[in-house]
Structures are given as structure tokens and as C-alpha cells.
Predict the 3D structure of the following.
Amino acid sequence: MSGSFASFLARRLLSVLAVLIGVTACTFLIFHVMQPDRFADGRALPLQL
């Protein structure tokens, strides 16, 4: 019984870690793709979009 709980807990922790890494990577990429320096004019980012 404890072996199944340990494997459940390990799978749950790995899933949470995978989600955290995925969200962090997406947020990092969005912030770096959407930075205003990528655009030629000097207007604010919402105006450039």
C-alpha cells in the first residue's frame, strides 16, 4: 500500500514540476519575444501591436 502512495506522490511531484517549468519557459519566451526593442519605432508596445 505504501509503495503505491509513494509512486503516486512521485508522479504528482513530477507533474507539478513539469507544469512549473513549462509555464516558466512560456513566460520567459513571451517576455523576450514581446520586448519593445524588437520593433523599429519608439512607440509603446501596446500601440505597436
User: Anything to note?
Assistant: Residues 2-48 form one domain. The chain has a mean pLDDT of 82.
